[in-house]
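Q&A FORM
Asked by: J.P.
Topic: structure of Histidine triad nucleotide-binding protein

PROVIDED:
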Amino acid sequence: MAGEPQDDCLFCKIVAKHVPATIVRETETTVAFRDINPQAPTHVLVIPKAHYKDAATLAAAEPALAADVLREAQTVADEDKLESYRVVFNTGAGAGQTVFHAHAHVLGGRGLQWPPG
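REPLIED BY: S.T.
REPLY: Here is the structure written out as tokens.
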């Protein structure tokens, strides 16, 4: 069921503290942690604690929770003293999503070209 933890979800396991992660922030509704394969000096994932398969599903089901994720992305950028940064939501395998739990990538600390790869 949407919103409920999934036994086979890596990010649900991080939320439950069953899998270690370098957590940089945690709120009542979100967790932010460093990406294990960083693509920039700052590469932090911000996830809702509730399980939704992607950003579109999250936004449709719980817009306030989607806003929490974006608010935390801003806080991560502020704490890393980023003047410029990018927030990316990959939605679907064709867009590069590999973990099917909604998450925002916060990327910064170097020049980011457009369009991305």
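FOLLOW-UP: The chain is about 25% helix and 20% strand.
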